[in-house]
Amino acid sequence: MKATLEPVPDTPDLEPKVKLTVQVEEVELEPAIAAAWKEIAKEVKIPGFRPGKAPRALMEKQIGSGYARAEALNRAIPEFYGEAIIENDVDVIAQPELDITDGEESGDVTFTAVVGVRPSINIAGYGSLRVEVPSPEVATEDIDAQIDRIRSQYGELEVVERAAASDDFVTVDISGTQDGEEVDGLTADDYLYRVGSGMIASELDENLLGASAGDVVEFTAEHPDPEQDDVDFRVVVKEVKERVLPELTDEWVAEATEFETVEQLTDDVRSRLAEGAENRTRGAVRTGVVTELTQLVDEEIPESLVSAEMSSQLQNVIMRLQQQGIGLDDYLRVIGQDQDDFLSGLKESAADGVKADLALRAVVAAEQIVAPEDEVDHAIEHMIGDADISLDDAREQLRRGGQLSELRSDLAAQKAIDWLVAHAEVVDPDGNAIDERFLQPLEHDHDHDDHDHGDHDHGDHDHD
Question: What is the rounded distance in angstroms from the CA atom of residue 269 to the CA atom of residue 183?
Fold first, then answer.
């Protein structure tokens, strides 16, 4: 098989197309023709032969070779097309228009494929991005708050003679009614409720703040189920309690935790918070440069790419919800969003994703960023895991499936982000420069299944 590639003239920059001219020798088509005859033999009735056993030569003499060749071409051309785009590294984003130009009846076969490819864009100013991220420094207040959360697990509730404040606990008799009838699940006696938790209704927290033992509060609030009518609440406050934390001493630390002293506990909390802050900052830096890069895209983007990305994101959402046993309609009802608003938000997210992808590809091209082959091999080995397959075989499978070039693109995009981070001005909310240790390139893990390349379709195409 031989293939030549040329751009299709007079196509919009936004929707470029290429034309592949593919020549297939007759001997390469023969396996497909033989397979077609095997299928035909199962249907053709020839005296003296069981179904599927008639010789090919006899069938050709009786019914001719045209039908078998047509079937073979219909099956084989999409496969040859797939091989051609892989060998020529064509980044297709649409179904091809296939047309047999020679050899439809006999001999070598020539066909053309006109197909849309991913457009390229130009980005200016990407080498001087400014990104603001949360400060990675761990404040003393953060450490104290985390230790207080640990202490609160061992706290005791004590009755207080004062008005309820946020995070206090109140014992209440609560009654929720609709048209005078009690509502199941919204009526209880001696119910212990944490003020500010928002567990029942925001109006409940608003009315309990400042309430004291003996007070009765009445209000109307939305039912937790948005499809239900509003509920009338009557709440009798019986007690106000506050959580009293244990004293922070070496003795308590030794008794309640794995550490012996307050200093050891504090050091551990500081270390854990610092690790979390560092990871969040690294992630925020990388997300931030991509977001800022996307803002530089002032060219239109193909609607076909946005639609494909939107469809991919929607399928991912539906699949995740199904894994949790939740339907999309139920999910939208829970989050209080109608389908039009949900799809509008999804389209906006898809458009941003397409812009980011095209922008990163532009940086890769402009800076001539290439993923070294040892990194490609490392990524493939990560994908293989414990599977019983060699690196070479896995690489060949990826190549034949058109995924090897996609993997290289993914790795190059990550390197482009590394480049952007290295050349960006990264500051905290106060304008202070972020320590360079948070700007070092990440050691990328590459689980290629996480990358959806649904716009690459190498087979099952009809031809004219």
Answer: 45
- Across 374-427, where does the E strand assignment appear? 425-427
Contacts of the segment 31-35: beta carbons below 8 A, 24+ positions apart: 32/72, 32/73, 32/75, 32/76, 33/68, 33/69, 33/72, 35/72, 35/75
- At the topology level, CATH places domain 262-299+347-450 in Trigger factor, domain 2 (1.10.3120)
Q: Which residue has the tokens 């864009």?
A: 121
Query: In Å, what is the CA distance from 78 to each residue of 3, 23, 32, 66, 324?
Result: 14, 13, 12, 19, 38
Q: How far apart are CA 96 and CA 149, in angstroms?
A: 60
CATH of domain 2-116: 3.30.70.1050
Domain ranges of the chain: 2-116, 157-244, 262-299+347-450
Q: φ, ψ for residue 297 (rounded to 5)? A: -75, 110
CB 386: neighbour CB atoms within 10 A? 4
Q: For each of the chain's 464 residues, which pLDDT tens digit applies? A: 999 999 999 888 788 999 999 999 999 999 999 999 888 888 777 776 777 677 888 788 878 888 899 999 999 999 999 999 999 989 998 899 999 999 999 999 999 999 999 999 999 999 999 999 998 889 999 999 999 999 999 999 999 999 999 999 999 999 999 988 998 889 999 999 999 998 888 899 999 999 999 999 999 998 877 778 899 999 999 999 999 999 999 999 999 999 999 999 999 999 999 999 999 999 999 999 999 999 999 988 888 899 999 999 999 999 999 999 999 988 998 888 889 999 999 999 999 999 999 999 999 999 999 999 999 999 999 999 988 999 999 999 998 888 899 999 999 999 999 999 999 999 999 999 998 888 887 665 444 444 444 444 444 444 44
Q: Is 157-244 assigned to CATH 3.40.605.10? A: no
In angstroms, the CA 23 to CA 39 distance is 26
Residue found under tokens 């994908």? 383
Determine the Cα angle at 453 with ends 288 and 12, to 5°.
85
Dist. CA 407–CA 202, nearest whole Å: 48
- Angle, vertex CA 280, rays to CA 364 and CA 429, nearest 5: 90
Residue with tokens 């047509």: 70
Its sign, for the CA torsion 302, 306, 312, 315, is negative
Rounded Cα–Cα distance for residues 109 and 247 (Å): 86
Kindly tell me the sign of the dihedral angle through the C-alpha atoms of 246, 250, 255, 259: positive
- First CA to last CA across the chain, in angstroms? 20
Q: How many CA atoms lie within 13 A of 252 on its CB side?
A: 14
